[in-house]
Amino acid sequence: MRVAVVGAGVVGLSAAAALLERGAEVVCYERADEPMAERSVGSSRIFRYAHREPELVRLAADARAGFDRWAERSGRRMVVPSGCVISGADVPTWAAAMEAADAPFELQPDADRLRLPTRRPPAEALLDPSGGVVDVDAVREYLTGLTARALRREPVEAVDADGHVWSRSGPARFDVVLLAAGTGTSALAARVGVSVPGELEHHARFTFPVDPAVAWRSWIDLPATGLGTYQHASGPGRWAVGGHLDPAATAWPVGRDAATAAARDEVLAYAREHLAVEPRIVETVYCTPTPGLGDGFHVQHAGRVVAVHGENLFKFAPVLGTALAAACERD
Ligand SMILES: Cc1cc2nc3c(=O)[nH]c(=O)nc-3n(C[C@H](O)[C@H](O)[C@H](O)COP(=O)(O)OP(=O)(O)OC[C@H]3O[C@@H](n4cnc5c(N)ncnc54)[C@H](O)[C@@H]3O)c2cc1C
Predict the structure, then answer these.
(1) Bridge partner list, 310
(2) Quick check: CB of 305 below 6 Å from ligand 1?
(3) Which atom, in ligand 1's list, is nearest to the CA of 232?
(4) Among 82, 106, 140, 291, which is disulfide-ready with 201 (CB 3.0 to 4.6 Å)?
(5) Domain interval for residue 106
(6) What is the C-alpha to C-alpha distance for residues 162 and 177, in angstroms, rounded to an integer?
(7) Above 70 in pLDDT, residue 331?
(8) Are residues 208 and 326 in the same domain?
(9) 37 Cβ inside 6 Å of ligand 1
(10) Cα separation of 122 and 120, whole Å?
(11) Same domain, yes or no: 234 and 158
(12) What's the CATH code of the domain at 277?
């Protein structure tokens, strides 16, 4: 089977690796100079079993087993097991999903168990002891090593439902074309009549210095009022914080610089008031998510084209790669 994978982000590379393992002939097209340079950029992501739906909790458990397999093969740990705390008014929904999926969790752990950098512990909290931090550098090194022979640094201009791919080296035909192109998927999928949301917004995550000896848990805080955030260790002595700003401040027409400046001001003010971090930004990670998607992913197909899109996909990478490879085989 000849498969074109469009996009060498974590999703495309995971699928390419799974396809190569199944004996497929794979060409993975990437328009950027380096793989994993757009939505998969940076060095860390939150891993968690905790989701609002039991199906996603189960998938996260499968993904964790996949990360462990990758770790065994590469000799490098992929998930740092710090645990993850979810806090805010929605905690009962997350708890119900964890319960339905038979996943371990603790409700209302005491402050010692919470292990968060905040001066004001949240009123409602759920501890997901299986959560932690994905080491993106380890994943990148593993996947790019496995897929190096398949990678072609060329933008794909168009695809059709018969399996044709147009790039600067001319048209090529494949048994299946997998669109895993992140921000590029919507335009390519539209060519074969598949509708994928194409709207984008600006998002920035900021890293603060902390005492390297601290071992805080990853944290998703969704308070009823005030700034919602996600936070996690991003290497020793580094604490990353992303804020869920008013959508008007991060909308596409606002522009990258103004939206990043607004996010920086808000996250910095939040860090000064609430967090036990040095309020000095040492790294900014910028990307362009699709607004309003939330957790989870969607796979659609038309003829020989399979298209995937979603948000917060990093934590699902191993399971998504295997599932997409199987979807390609089923055509
Ligand atoms: C700051 C930040 C924090 C995040 N936090 C988390 C988290 O805590 N947990 C979590 O699970 N997820 C998190 N995410 C989301 C997660 O990282 C993304 O969902 C995931 O990396 C998406 O991977 P992808 O392969 O779909 O997209 P991408 O990494 O964007 O890959 C798509 C690739 O396709 C290429 N491409 C596009 N168009 C074309 C074309 N026409 N031809 C050739 N190549 C093309 C692009 O250059 C790109 O490399 C976060 C993302 C960011 C940016």
Answers:
(1) 297
(2) no
(3) 8
(4) 291
(5) 84-129+201-288
(6) 9
(7) no
(8) no
(9) yes
(10) 6
(11) no
(12) 3.30.9.10
The reply to whether 8 and 88 lie within a common domain is no
**Looking at the 3D structure of the chain, how many domains does it have?**
2
Taking the centre of ligand 1 as the mean of its atom positions, its distance from the CA of residue 76, in whole angstroms, is 22
Residue 283, token pair as written in the block: 């790294």
Ligand 1 in reach of 45 Cβ (< 6 A): yes
Q: Is residue 181 lining ligand 1, measured as CB closer than 6 Å?
A: yes
* CATH number, domain containing residue 24: 3.50.50.60
CB 299 within 8 A of CB 283: no
191 and 312 part of one domain? yes
Same domain assignment for residues 124 and 215: yes
- 324 CA to centre of ligand 1 in angstroms: 16
Residue nearest to atom 33 of ligand 1 (CA): 7
pLDDT band at residue 112 using 50, 70 and 90 as cut-offs? confident
> 325 and 178 in one domain?
yes
Distance between CA atoms of residues 116 and 85, nearest Å? 8
The token duo for 178 is: 């997998």
Determine if ligand 1 sits within 6 Å of the CB of residue 12.
yes
Which residues in 148-174 are b (16+ Cβ under 10 Å) and which e? eebbbeeebeebbeebbbebeeeebeb
pLDDT (tens digit per residue) in 53-87: 999 999 999 999 999 999 999 999 999 999 999 99
Is ligand 1 within 6 A of the CB of residue 7?
A: yes
* Closest C-alpha to ligand 1, atom 21: 40
Reading the block at residue 48, the tokens are 């968690």
